[in-house]
Amino acid sequence: MSDQTDLRGPMDRDMDRRLAGWMGAVAPDRAPGRLLEETFARTMSAPQARNVPWGKITIGPRRDSAHVTRWILVAAILAIVILASSIIGLGSPAPPEPTASPSPSPSPSPSPSITPPGPSPISATADVTLPIQGPIAIITDGVELWVLSSGRLDRIDPTGGKVTATITLGKTTDLYNGVASGAGSLWATNWDAQVLYRVDPKAGKVTASIPVGLTKGVVTTPGAVWIANTRTGTVMRLDSATNKIVATTTVGPTGASGPNWLAIGFGSIWVDVPNNDTIARIDPVSGAIQATIRPPLQFTPCGGFGIAADAVWLADCESSKSVLRIDPATNAPVVTVDLGGTGHNPLLINGSPWITVDRGGPDNGRIVRISPVTNTIDRVLVPDVPFGGGGDIAMVAGSVWVVDGYHNTVLRLPLTAFQ
Q1: Burial label, 20 (beta-carbon count in 10 A; 0-12, 13-18, 19+)
Q2: Measured between alpha carbons, how far is 78 from 101 in angstroms, rounded to an integer?
Q3: Where in the chain is the domain with CATH 2.130.10.10?
Q4: Contact 240, 268 (CB under 8 A)
Q5: What architecture does CATH give domain 116-418?
Q6: d(CA 314, CA 300)
């Protein structure tokens, strides 16, 4: 007998008997929540007995035993659900849901616990404060210091603390730019102009403007310059002898928020890819992807890298306000450390990463050290001048230099404060 015939039996049948056949047939295979929905729907849609004067039923103080109230219907539904639960409990367990084959893409890593920011801050004296319009990035070759700013490169004498040369790059910009040193040149990306500038630091002039599209990070290896293209989802390899792009490596999808920043370490090129929520590790010889690393779900891989002796550190430039530690031996995320604000490129000093932190506002910046032993913040510095934080950081000639975009300045702090 079909469900339809069984449910449409004699119109004077009791409701529990009306559903008994259907319950016995389907209850063992129905989830309790779904069973409740079906029971209610079938009960309400079933024809009612002819001898019940439904049109005369009223709600109120009247209680005529000859009339069937809606409470009987509710009680019947509850009784059926209880019966169904018993049947399900006594029956054989339903087979598990089929699972899909493992995807070749990396699975989200378990979310490590996030530790709170560390101790009370210590004041650090800024003995040099240089006004630089629109400072973006900072780089050193161990002797000189260069600051990439809005449409120019400024060379700073790290000992005297003064700007000694300025090289105009072209179109003014204050966003999404990187700078690197290699092959006797400085290499700087320009988001607005969509070019890579090659600069001769000795002659103090631009020697080439190479079209590369919307790019950010840039690093160099012997004979090559690597550039992250944020729209094509690729990392481009440029031959420094010819200034031509000779290869590309796809690390993510096309579109906005593609590859951001690059770093070199452990024999690889590292690149963060925000729109793919991954970090890619590239072989600098073959250009092949060696590993694709997926950070914890709350972490957006979009900040700068710091390379330690046994770890890769990466800042989150968005909501999690944390820094991620990666084990390069296993390519596994180890821990995230809460910075209490937005961090930038980690700088390694004596094996510990230091990060400038923007906590919101022009005077709330900090510089924090993370212990590589405990993975917690164990030292916090606050410059004794207005400091917004969240900028680039470099070490040269016994001092540490930090960029402060809030105040358009570059500060020099004593290295002793970072011990």
Answers
A1: middle
A2: 40
A3: 116-418
A4: no
A5: 7 Propeller (2.130)
A6: 10
Compute the distance between CA of residue 184 and CA of residue 161 in angstroms, rounded to an integer.
Answer: 24
Beta strand spans in 40-89 (E)? none
In the chain, the percentage of residues whose pLDDT exceeds 70 is: 72
Which helix (DSSP H) or strand (DSSP E) does residue 146 occupy? Answer: strand 145-149
The 3-state DSSP class for residue 21 equals helix
Q: Hunting for tokens 């004794």 — which residue is that?
A: 384
Closest CA to 400 of 345, 362, 359: 345
pLDDT single digits (tens) 392-403: 999 999 999 999
DSSP for 384-419, please give it: SS-----S-EEEETTEEEEEETTTTEEEEEEGGGG-
Across residues 265-283, what is the average pLDDT?
A: 98
Q: Which residue has the higher pLDDT, 42 or 167?
A: 167
Residue 97 backbone phi and psi in degrees, to 5: -65, 140
Give me 123's structure tokens: 């004041």
DSSP annotation of 214 reads S
Residue 60 DSSP symbol: S
- Angle at the Cα of 90 (from 35 to 20), degrees rounded to 5? 50
CA–CA separation, 108 and 295 (whole Å): 7
The amino acid at 172 = T
First-to-last C-alpha distance (Å) of the chain: 85
Kind and range of the H or E run holding 401:
strand 399-404
Q: What is the dihedral of CA 91, 93, 94, 96, to 10 degrees?
A: 180
* Number of CB atoms found within 10 A of residue 283's CB: 14
* pLDDT confidence of residue 86: 44
